[in-house]
Design goal:
The protein is an all-alpha fold and about 150 residues long. The protein has one domain (about 1-120). It has six helices and no strands. The chain has helices at about 1-10, 15, 25-30, 30-45, 50-135, 145-150. Helix 4 runs antiparallel to helix 5. The longest helix has about 90 residues, at about 50-135. It is rod-shaped. It starts with a helix and ends with a helix.
């Protein structure tokens, strides 16, 4: 029985409830110190061996209930952690897929932009050449020797 009491000194609800889970059911009905006090009083107030055995059986029942609630909280915490992990993995996959689509779309649009920019540059260069020939009458298509022969 002494090892159980020593175990009670080292286990606390905060140790068992990591993350977001809590041992609220266990901590509201039974606190670890409350179980220890109850067990100690049970042993101290009994006069006969049979009374001590009954008191210790009740104490063991409380410890079992406390352990059961702690295990349920641990299981809930584990399940919650696994679900969180699965959700984060799914989110990571979604973000990678989204990033891939964005990169593909960006490259496609960048290629289209570069092609349009090149076409625009060529069209503008052609326009400037025609504009220049209109300003310079000697370079005009109407002033070429072939055109002059045809007119004259």
């Amino acid at each position: 029985m002494l090892p159980l009491l020593f175990l009670l000194l080292y286990i606390s609800p905060s140790d068992a409830s990591r993350g977001e889970a809590s041992l609220e059911a266990a901590s509201t009905r039974l606190s670890m110190s409350g179980v220890m006090e109850h067990c100690q009083r049970a042993v101290d107030t009994t006069r006969t061996a049979s009374e001590t055995i009954k008191a210790l059986q009740q104490c063991i029942g409380l410890l079992e209930e406390f352990a059961k609630e702690g295990n349920q909280a641990r299981t809930a915490t584990k399940r919650s952690g696994q679900q969180y992990s699965a959700d984060m993995n799914l989110l990571g996959s979604f973000l990678q897929s989204l990033e891939s689509r964005i990169v593909k779309t960006y490259k496609k649009h960048q290629h289209s932009y570069e092609q349009l920019r090149s076409d625009q540059h060529q069209a503008f260069s052609g326009f400037l050449e025609r504009l220049q020939t209109m300003k310079d009458p000697l370079r005009s298509p109407l002033r070429t020797p072939t055109a002059l022969k045809a007119v004259g």
